[in-house]
Amino acid sequence: RVYFLPQMQRRHLGIDEEEDEEDEEESSDLDSDEEEEEEDEEEEEPPQLKYTRLMVEPLKDQVNGQETASAMAVCNKFLVLGTHTGKVHVLDNLGHLINSFNNHTSTVNDLCVDLPGEFIAACGNDGKVSIMGMYDRSTATHAFDRPIKSVALDPLYGSNQSKPLVAGGMGQTLHYITKSRFLRTVKVDVLHSGEGKIHAVAWKKDLIAWANDAGIKIYDTGSEQRIARIDCPERSPRPDLFRCVLCFETDD
Q1: 0.85 exceeded by pTM
Q2: Which of 54, 114, 104, 57 is CA-nearest to residue 83?
Q3: Whose CA is closest to 148, among 165, 133, 132?
Q4: In the chain, fewer beta carbons within 10 Å around the N or the C end?
Q5: Are the C-beta atoms of residues 82 and 108 closer than 8 Å to each other?
Q6: CA–CA separation, 125 and 110 (whole Å)
């Protein structure tokens, strides 16, 4: 049976107040659910990347599984692996070995490939910087007293007669290395020093960026001036344990 009470009796019995409280609770729950749904929609979903697992068996057959990778560089033609034994291996997209270089005696710390994919630069704990030609098999080596942690080639290294590159590391100096056009001698200039170890270097068009213990600097090779500086934030973790990675997002 259903009984309909007059409004005054419902108020006297407190029925309306109980129903109002229940309605308020239900509406608040709905509002909170809607807010949570809106927040979930606002959160960006992680991108779904397409990938293909690299076949490493061909490489294992070549190196007998006795080497571990210490550095890597990628271009649109091939990828390069540096190892803790000082070797540099060039692989195709399926992991097949194309070429190998053995210019270092200890860990390869960094690798760089020029824009056309014609030259590879490597640096290591032995203090050496080596530049290897992919097609002419040419090799150039520069030796320093302290381990070199990062290296970067001029993006158009092959077509530039002065063959410029930059390298730095534990010696707390960023070296700018060029080759004389006429005397065929190598010139090493100090681009920057005195602010700690050089942890990373990147080169894009006319801009060279490097990271040391104090922060990040950017140098314009066209004007031959430093144009930007980003100081390391306070209470930052040790840069030698959490190495900085530099990358120019666009050509602009």
Answers
A1: no
A2: 104
A3: 165
A4: N
A5: yes
A6: 10
